[in-house]
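Feature request disguised as a bug: please show the residue count (372) next to Photosynthetic reaction center cytochrome c subunit in the output. Example input:
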Amino acid sequence: MKTFFTVLGASIAFFLTIAMFGTSGWVRPPLQTTQNGFRGTGMDQIHTRAGVAAAKDANLAPAPADPAEPGEELAGATYENVQVLKNVSVNEFNRLMTSMTEWVSPEQGCTYCHNTENMADDSLYQKKVARRMLQMTQAINTNWKEKHVGGTGVTCFTCHRGQPVPANIWFTNPGPNHTSGFVPRNNGQNMASPSVGLSSLPYDTLTEYLADKNIDNNAIRVNATTALPTTKGKPIQDAEKTYGLMIHMSEGLGVNCTFCHNTRAISNWSQSTPQRTTAWHGIRMVRDLNGNYLEPLTSTFPAARLGVLGDAPKVNCTTCHNGQSKPLNGAQVIEPYPALAKSTEVAGAAETAPAAEPAPTAPAPTPVPAPQ
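Example output, currently without the count:
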């Protein structure tokens, strides 16, 4: 009898378990795996197929406008107060203006930047910002082509996605602001910030590492390059800040650490993937854009467009990538718009972005992935 009840109890437990999993709707979602390192290193990117499809649908590049009709008239000689695109043909100029409206202000139209009663008027701050953003886009596609953006390039849509203000911008985070009582001392962390994956890591690493164009190039490095210490090293707080920045980059690109690093030797360039070199330049490109193009616009933006500390909106990795390793699914967006692919003559003493600095001294070799 005891054996009977034991078997009965085991059978009931078995069928209840089957019923629980069979009726709860729980199944392991189909996975999509991409190997980007040497076999045996575990350097894989693992996503759900549904997640990959959703990210792809959310990052579709718009079709380029029909090519402009040939013409020799230049925009600078035809229209008043054309500064950045003065050496572009009138037809190409008008085509680009139409595309920019669709990329940035499809609902507001031309009036978002222009006084349509006097198109040469510079009274709207949006026009002044747009002029500088044109220069920034040209600089990205020129100065950073070989180092980061490659032949895919960027257009206004890469960041704006049909919105006047890009969704993924950021400001300096001042932390808690108590007007009375004890002044909080949290060492700049222990506040759930999206920029560090809602973790307890320092919540304003972007200001320290991506806003300052003159930052020490070794500021982010915390790993020793030798087996035994040869210097005093850096405090744990610096390691936490670096890790916070790495989380931002990982989430901004929709990848994990092994997209760039072999985690058995994080600091070793020879065991890293080529993507690490691209990311190295990407960090410096973001500093260039924030320091040379966006921060100087602080006085141009109205107060409502500034952060709580009065700083200008800035870009980070997510601004362009939007959760993908290649923005807009890697679409070649710059080829149809030659005016954005190179610097054009600018009237006045326009600020020119510096060229990209040299690559690390020990760039990574291209790994040969094993067959899937």
